[in-house]
Amino acid sequence: MSSAGLTAAAMAAALRRGEVTPQELLADARAQVSRLDSSLNAFLALTDDLADRQAERATEMLRDDRLGAGPLCGIPVALKDVLCVEGYPTTAGSRILENFRPPYTATAVQRLIDAGAVPVGKTNCDEFAMGSSTENSAYGTVGNPWDVERVPGGSSGGSAAAVGAGMVPISYGTDTGGSIRQPASLCGVVGFKPTYGRVSRYGLIAFASSLDQVGPFAHSVEDAAVAYAVVAGNDPRDSTSVIDAVEDPLSALRDGVRGMRLGVPREYMGDGLEAGVRERVTEAIRVLEELGATVEEVSLPSTELGLSTYYIIAPAECSSNLARYDGVRFGMRVERPSLTETYLRTRDQGFGNEVKRRVMLGTYALSSGYYDAYYRRAQKVRTVIAREFDAVFETVDALVCPTSPKVAFTTGAIQDPVEMYLNDALTIPVNLAGLPGISLPCGFSDELPVGLQVIAPRLQDARVFRVAAAYEAATEWHRHRAPLVAA
Ligand code: GLN
Does any ligand 1 atom lie closer than 6 A to the CB of residue 155? Predict the structure, then answer.
């Protein structure tokens, strides 16, 4: 029987009982990829040699107790193609990095390798992680496992689809404004964005450095907590890495929510929500109440400013980060007689439309004469948004709300960039404030998954997992698999 669709915890237990080997789990993952990826396009590259080597290594680690095999030892994982793996193609979904092979490995990936995890391949994503549907990838769109005509969300759509389709039990993405939580919501899986600074950004291709965070996708809250714990922790190679020790995310997993105070931000339940999303999330909040939490409405009045603030700050940082793609140092080069023309033609042909739009927005916002009006003001609003969260967390322990205002939409259905940006209205404020947040399955609307978002104060990542685990334990939604998972 194939292991496709099992949790990592179930796979790890089977490995320890000797019922399966890392090589067999890897073979199952590959079989599922080759059966489904011609329609899903979740993977941009397979890292076959690395996977084989790691399966060997895991076998050894599992055999010898002294090697301290952890929970991800021998478990197949997938990596968003913005995470550098030495010697393997890393494109960030962009033409401009088509032939780029990084000379070093991201810290998060190195920690997975050290833990004996088995990286199967690199997943498709919006170009440089800019988007909410994975339609901005230079390498084709990705199908949603629940309906291949629909988008998986984005920008980490390939990572979400790879777990949703049972190709791997764990994958990693990045979340700058919602790119882990929103695709998790649309693909019916768990997706966790850690507190900013918890997971090293070293070796992560930068989009907006003050917002970017690496985090996992999984079928269960426990798997997500384990997958987070393996990659979390201080890294001297990332100057924004948090120094404090990581609280064990598994420590509070079974504590329940009795006596906890949960807030529902009024602004997150407003007009923009689809009816089905509102109903499922309202029911989920009732479940948490029945489990003994007290639930109250709270207000984050500046929520509506989140999107406009983000769309100054993120493009500003993007325009600066992407200046390095000049056709000289990395990837693609369109050779022209003069250096300036080489820069211009390389960037013109190498970048897609959304990336160009962001570079122009950011360059404009940072230009002299406009800096104060846009960038400086956006930074002030960012502070206001963060303080509103601080104030609310004086009275409640965590927030619960929808992740995405809508379920997965049909590929090609949204053409207007601003309409696309609205998909992240409920996830972006969390990034602006640097908070941890999770999305977990809470039911279906028109047979498409709906996600519940849980948000906690900075560094209270364990609390996010506690609330999410309590909800999950009381419901069955996390057990549902897309019909295509089983052959
Ligand atoms: N969709 C948002 C954007 O396009 C967020 C992307 C992300 O989190 N990487 O910027």
Answer: yes
